[in-house]
Input
Amino acid sequence: MQEQRQRTRILIVYYSRFGAVRSLAEHVAEGARRVPDIETEMLEVEDLPVEALRPGERAADMQMRRAMVVGKLGSADALIVGAPAYFGSMASPVKRLFEDCATASNPPATDRSRPWHHYLFHDKPGGAFTASATPHGGNEQALHSILTLMMHLGMVVVTPGQQMPILENDAAPYGATAITGAMGNRIPTETELESARALGQRVAEVATWLAWGRTEWEKRHGAIGDHVASVTKST
Ligand SMILES: Cc1cc2nc3c(=O)[nH]c(=O)nc-3n(C[C@H](O)[C@H](O)[C@H](O)COP(=O)(O)O)c2cc1C
Output
């Protein structure tokens, strides 16, 4: 009898003011679903910080909304994060979301030095995508800013790498990109859309391999959390 495996959940987190990054996000999701047993979910980042009260919202509602966002980020098997390039870096709402959600809102007084929910992100595969007005407008820097955030949180960075034919394919090796032109109205090319699909597919493949490998590892050696705790205690 074939063993039942759980579906691998890919969360695509993105911010988009004019629509280019949203379009890439949809193609990233399409690419991820090329891989068997993958579920994709979208999380569109809002302009307002997660902790800002929305019109008519009470503090308790905001805390529930925040907990749902933190829950989505924490329970996904992999994150693919997209942000427009703003001044050569990821647009600030995306960084802000991670700052708000990776930081415990009520750090216990006894542990003021570690108010970070970094464990939510540890070991998760992650990939990045961006859109910029011009080819030299900082799109690779914007990808790097997202990948640096992921490295800092202990995520497993997944990049497309160089794509064939190496000297003719203008896709970035660090993530998916689209150039939207000075007026922001350039339609993404098929190469750009395919680079978004390929990113989704690659992150989904690596996430599946890691999840399956982890299941096998735990069968032999017990829960990874217990193993980490025992190693940490003995060092
Ligand atoms: C505040 C701001 C800063 C920007 N900075 C850059 C930049 O540094 N380099 C660039 O090429 N484009 C820059 N752009 C253009 C956006 O990166 C581009 O329009 C992108 O497609 C927006 O993505 P969206 O359509 O998903 O909102 C900037 C746009 C704004 C609003």
Remarks:
- The chain is about 40% helix and 15% strand.
- Strands lie at 8-14, 38-44, 78-82, 85-86, 89-90, 125-132, 156-157, 176-179.
- The first helix runs from residue 20 to 32.
- The CA atoms of residues 109 and 190 lie 53 Å apart.
